[in-house]
Amino acid sequence: MRVIPAVKEMQAEVLNQKAQGKSIGFVPTMGFLHEGHLSLIKKAREENDLVVLSIFVNPLQFGPNEDFATYPRDFERDRALAESEGVDFLFYPSVEEMYPNPSSVTLVVQKRTDVLCGKSRPGHFDGVATVLAKLFQIVQPTRAYFGKKDAQQVAVVEGLITDLNFPVELVPVDIVREADGLAKSSRNVNLLPEDRKQAVVLHKSLQQAKKVMDEGERNPSTLISLIKEMITSESSGRIDYIELLSYPQLLPIERLEGKFIIALAVHFTNVRLIDNFILEIN
Amino acid sequence: MRVIPAVKEMQAEVLNQKAQGKSIGFVPTMGFLHEGHLSLIKKAREENDLVVLSIFVNPLQFGPNEDFATYPRDFERDRALAESEGVDFLFYPSVEEMYPNPSSVTLVVQKRTDVLCGKSRPGHFDGVATVLAKLFQIVQPTRAYFGKKDAQQVAVVEGLITDLNFPVELVPVDIVREADGLAKSSRNVNLLPEDRKQAVVLHKSLQQAKKVMDEGERNPSTLISLIKEMITSESSGRIDYIELLSYPQLLPIERLEGKFIIALAVHFTNVRLIDNFILEIN
Fold first, then answer.
1. Fewer CB within 10 Å, N side or C side of chain A?
2. Is the minimum CB–CB distance between B119 and chain A shorter than 8 Å?
3. Which residue from A minimizes the CA distance to B22?
4. Considering only alpha carbons, which residue of chain B is nearest residue A18?
């Protein structure tokens, strides 16, 4: 595995490989790898000639009061994990390398952003889209792998790839969970012990909502109320949102049908956690 | 030469060619080709294995009161010219093909737009950047050729390529002029006979300004006044702007030094014409 910190070197390498007909699987991350990331890498490894993993904590997608400074980082551990998963190139640029001067051009996401995380994180998805547009140019992926935990991100990336004609196949990968159901997240490490115990309620409430739906409930409000009640009674977490929307359009629906997402975000002491189920009724 | 109207077919073709190590020269145009365009094609032909010409009148870069509807079009003539210049692929998509639905993502140009044409054409360069980002994905150029007549566009594209890391070499090509000095433009065909005669003053005034500069003048205001006076006295054109700025940064300068542009735009009866000199004093 080669670690490449320079944009020009990374780009020259993949352009050279692509000129030889090689396919490139790309896993963009902010590092502090967990089993969720590893499942993306494994899938990329299976489906492509070469695998590029990027680790870059992108300041553009953090708001002024968000956790850019405290976002967990451990490069040596990440490097060892990447190597053991058979990554070919680990792209690890500095902020200065990615943004040498204030950008003269940025991307603005016009749709799918005024709901879920986008509502409380203005500009977040503009930052995601801008860094991904750059990374897609630098890494030239044939396929790009994203976790369904960030379901709104997957929806935004789907729009980005389609509307700007990136020749990239988007591959969404299922959420990986702890034994007790908590979705794997780099941020979990910042949970206080008591919060960690309570955090299981996120997944539990989604399961309960699915159960009620399987029994025939078709009213979105009923499911949302049920989840809200469970989280409030079984944790001290402060609910940011619980929403039920069509997927990937992320528009409100009045009755459960077609493909939709139930998604939630809850603040604990040091960490805001998200989780979701993407479901389909036909 | 193959004419390709479909995005997917164009992209598949160039990706296939690039996987065989071929270089691609790209000339993006709005059609109604003149000798200026042909000089871009000739240069692309010399420097690349394959040449892609695109013809697309991009609605996104026209304002509501601009000439999208009357912009001159003559596809059969353009096709014959492209063929005779040795173009390999003529990409000729419909508006529906390029923008099948309202875009969920657009590009916003943050710099170099509040001067020259950008000042009187709000959103114009956002539309240019958005369509070029798409075209760069669809055509996958090794090199892209742009005329220096649209000098602000060249400056914006330079920022776009650098800041979003497009692996594309920007090749600016000199202005081609009529025998009397008028810069070639697709819009010249819409000039009334009397306006056509008077329009020669644009180039003449730039030459006069350069002469005065060569004789030692270093004050931008003096040159601007001189140009303004010539245009006003020798034509009935209405001046949109006459500006003198650093290039490609497009920032005001107080004294002529380094690389700079003298650019102007003048409204005639049916047409707004632009012209410029890019000069350097060291």
1. C
2. no
3. A19
4. B19
